[in-house]
Specification:
Layout lengths: L4 E8 L2 H14 L2 E2 L2 E8 L2 H10 L5 E3 L22 H4 L5 E8 L4 H7 L5 E8 L16 E6 L13 E7 L5 H10 L9 E2 L2
Antiparallel strand pairs: 1-8, 1-9, 2-6, 3-5, 3-6, 4-5, 6-7, 7-8
């Protein structure tokens, strides 16, 4: 078991650029899973409405656990499409975490991200690369965008957006360097603990 190693290969203040470069990397995967994972922190009523449009029917919930007077777990149960801002605001911040079919919502999701941390995870397998001796690792390989963050595991907020390539649990810097070069970039730091 264990976690992948995630190499940062792009940092930018432009979310559209982060998405476009990550999409180029995703296209380099030999195989890509049928579903992509999306996560976003929704800090404003406008954020909630945008995500409800992009991900209709997705479950929104409180970012932090909330309990009622008898210790019961409280869930967010308003319809974000019809609730007034005044009704939504006491529930903020919210979050959404959902898996959707690959290619169905990622670009619209990236365009809808607000000021909260958000992420897109494409899992798959990199092709074998005889030049570097790298082999694919379907349990660990993939591409990730972290919006407003520079940690693969979403630690802390940042003004910029970071694209990561994930490789085997043992790391594979030669592969990461080649993937970064494929999008006109370079590895921007040490490998981090991935998924």
């Amino acid at each position: 078991m264990g976690n992948s190693r995630a190499y940062p290969v792009l940092r930018t203040s432009d979310p559209a650029e982060a998405y476009a470069r990550a999409e180029l990397l995703r296209a380099l995967l030999e195989t890509c899973e049928d579903e992509v994972s999306l996560y976003a922190e929704l800090l404003t009523a406008a954020d909630v409405r945008r995500m409800a449009e992009v991900l209709p029917g997705a479950r929104l919930d409180h970012l932090d656990v909330r309990t009622g007077p008898e210790g019961e777990y409280l869930r967010f149960d308003l319809d974000p499409r019809t609730a007034e801002d005044a009704a939504l605001e006491p529930h903020l911040p919210l979050n959404v975490m959902v898996d959707v079919p690959t290619g169905s919502a990622e670009e619209r999701f990236a365009a809808a991200v607000g000021r909260g941390t958000a992420a897109v995870h494409w899992c798959g397998r990199w092709p074998a690369d005889p030049e570097t001796g790298s082999v694919g690792s379907p349990q660990y390989d993939g591409v990730q965008i972290v919006f407003h963050g520079d940690r693969s595991q979403w630690g802390g907020w940042a003004e910029h957006h970071t694209v990561f390539v994930h490789v085997s649990k043992f790391g594979d810097e030669p592969r990461a360097r080649k993937l970064a070069a494929a999008i006109g970039s370079e590895v921007l730091g040490e490998a981090q603990l991935g998924w």
